[in-house]
Design goal:
The strands form six sheets. The chain has a seven-stranded mixed β-sheet. Strands 22, 23, 24, 25, 26 and 27 form a six-stranded antiparallel β-sheet that branches. The protein has a five-stranded mixed β-sheet with strand order 16-17-18-20-19, covered by helices on one side. With 582 residues, it is an alpha+beta fold. Helix 4 crosses helix 5. The protein has four domains: 2-164, Sandwich (Immunoglobulin-like), CATH 2.60.40.3650; 167-259, Neutral Protease Domain 2 (Neutral Protease, domain 2); 283-455, Neutral Protease, domain 2, CATH 1.10.390; 467-544, Roll (Pdz3 Domain). It starts with a strand and ends in a 7-residue tail after the last helix. It contains 17 helices and 28 strands.
């Protein structure tokens, strides 16, 4: 299977693609377009961007075909020994997992736009690029003279690339492995700061999978490429691949300032994915099937463990201080405790159901985030292992074992395998943990309190300073000067008063809400409220009681007064800071 991609008429944003498929005469083929892309566990329906789909044989004769599903075609080859399939692909969306063309670049995620023959995914293939001579090509796969060669279709689908004349590039090495940083966009970079920080967290991650005795570096690939799409508008998105990652960030003028922590965080997160999900992969995704959903309960490992460790590595490598990490951890706690889907759907079930409603908020209080809840469970598991092993093991040992026993042996792992590895290093049965917190909806408070105590910390609650949230029990977003209700605390005064999501708050006790909702609420702290709202064009007055019940508390972690010596040792080995200094 050999392909060509032509860059022409970039203002139209239709990429011209041709595919040459060798075939047997008088056979039947199923041509498949990807339905989703790994790293995003929801259907993408990329075939909606295809136009002018045609097939001819080696002599230029038209070959008939039949649309089989929304993204597949049946072809009877008749006398053909080669099929040339041509089509154009609309590429107007720019994010970390898309395909995009304009006057500055050709950016392709092959998993968006490359047709392939079903059941021949392990055949070698190539892409020939027809681009301007001044364009530079960057890709994690082998390439020369604008020809990219792939071991098979899976390799191609996992190898995004950028062609442009305006790429900025630097590289660094850790343990003999080269890491490349590529930036597309009008951005001023502090290269010394970037390289210094990246070397630190890269070294810390590599050490977790390396063997000091044999001096073996446990990294799945020989070289790695960071591909950054830096935009003028607000953007934050990263997608993992085995030899590279694509990260979209913006606005460009804030990258080295307000966005720098986001830049570091997503980069550390995506690097860890080289091991966790690109190499250490659930059996349900080994190999990937691009034609349909790849259901798995293990999103809390793939994304949760990565979210937890991605931030932890920045602190452990001294790129960021403990104050920063504490704040990030408290954000995880706040998101957890204000998502009441945790009482209705487990993190394992939520992993399975990413295929239903993807990454949007979905039905209120229905499910949880595999990133957020998975990260907290990874922290809890890490602390269980460290405590039970007397600080001799950690979750890093679990992931290293999965890497050696499954990834390096080219096979997927099951949840039973993950549980067994955790139990091995904890030295105890963890069935209750998995039943209650992974597959159940038991509140996390007990396991989080115990985990925090292991490092000499405790979980505290503080009053929410916002009256609308603390006393009434609703959250808002200000859009076009309007305050719209986005969340309602179950059983709160807001819910008792009949407030609904998306209601616009017009006035409170006849005082018009204009620029500052809290300023209107401040003088009427202790009395019942009448909310004047706009509900889809209907203006209503709601009587909202005041039960003097505080909701939406703020969650913090603070040091205990007298930690044990073991607490201090575990804290130091966990994050590389001294407990006394934090």
């Amino acid at each position: 299977m050999n392909y060509s991609i032509t860059y022409q008429n970039p203002a139209q944003q239709y990429i011209h693609i041709e595919a040459l498929f060798a075939c047997e005469p008088n056979s039947k083929l199923m041509l498949q377009f990807p339905s989703w892309r790994p790293g995003r566990y929801e259907l993408g329906n990329f075939a909606k961007n295809v136009r002018n789909f045609k097939i001819v044989d080696q002599k230029g004769r038209k070959v008939s075909f039949e649309k089989h599903t929304k993204d597949s075609w049946k072809v009877a080859t008749q006398e053909s020994t080669e099929l040339k399939v041509s089509y154009t692909y609309f590429s107007s969306e720019l994010n970390a997992g898309s395909t995009f063309m304009d006057d500055t670049q050709l950016y392709v995620n092959p998993v968006n736009c490359m047709l392939y023959i079903k059941d021949r995914e392990f055949e070698p293939c190539s892409i020939q690029l027809n681009v301007p001579s001044n364009f530079e090509l960057v890709c994690g796969a082998e390439h020369k003279d604008n020809l990219i060669k792939f071991a098979d279709v899976h390799d191609m689908m996992d190898s995004p690339f950028i062609c442009s004349e305006s790429l900025q590039h630097k590289k660094y090495s850790v343990f003999g492995i080269k890491f490349h940083l590529w930036f597309h966009g009008d951005v001023v970079l502090d290269w010394n700061r970037i390289i210094t920080d990246f070397e630190k967290f890269t070294k810390t991650q590599l050490e977790k999978f390396s063997d000091r005795k044999t001096k073996t570096v446990g990294f799945p690939v020989k070289e790695y490429h960071y591909l950054y799409q830096i935009q003028e508008v607000r953007a934050y998105h990263g997608v993992e691949h085995k030899t590279s990652t694509v990260v979209s960030l913006g606005p460009a003028n804030q990258l080295m300032d307000k966005l720098y922590d986001d830049f570091l965080g997503v980069s550390s997160h995506e690097l860890y994915h080289v091991w966790n999900i690109k190499s250490i992969r659930p059996t349900e995704m080994y190999p990937y099937d691009y034609s349909k959903e790849n259901y798995s309960h293990l999103g809390y490992v793939a994304e949760g463990v990565t979210t937890y460790l991605g931030d932890l590595f920045l602190a452990e490598s001294n790129v960021k201080d403990f104050t920063w990490y504490k704040k990030e951890f408290e954000i995880l706690l706040q998101r957890h405790f204000t998502n009441f889907g945790r009482f209705n759907y487990s993190v394992a079930e939520s992993s399975w159901d990413t295929w239903l409603d993807g990454y949007v908020k979905g039905a209120p209080n229905r499910k949880v985030s595999i990133y957020n809840e998975g990260a907290l469970l990874a922290f809890a598991m890490d602390m269980i292992i460290r405590k039970e092993s007397q600080n001799k093991a950690s979750i890093h040992d679990v992931m290293k074992r999965l890497y050696s026993e499954f990834a390096l042996k080219k096979k997927g792992y099951t949840e039973a395998d993950y549980k067994a590895a955790c139990e091995l290093f904890a030295g105890k049965d963890l069935t209750d943990f998995f039943n209650n917190f992974v597959h159940g909806t038991q509140p996390y408070e007990s396991v989080l309190v115990e985990a925090l105590d292991t490092i000499g910390f405790k979980l505290d609650m503080e009053q929410n300073p916002l009256f609308s949230e603390r006393i009434i029990g609703f959250k808002t977003i200000k859009t076009d000067g309007k305050f719209l209700v986005t969340d309602i605390f179950p059983g709160s005064n807001a819910e008792l008063g009949g407030l609904m999501l998306n209601d616009q708050i017009i006035a409170i006790n006849d005082v018009q809400v204009k620029n500052d909702l809290e300023k209107v609420l401040a003088p009427i702290f202790d009395i019942s409220l009448t909310l004047k709202i706009n509900r889809s064009g209907r203006v209503l007055n709601l009587m909202c009681p005041n039960t003097n019940r505080d909701v939406y508390p703020i969650y913090k972690i603070n040091k205990v007064k007298i930690p044990s010596n073991l607490n201090k040792r575990i804290f130091k080995s966990w994050i590389a800071f001294n407990w006394e200094e934090c």
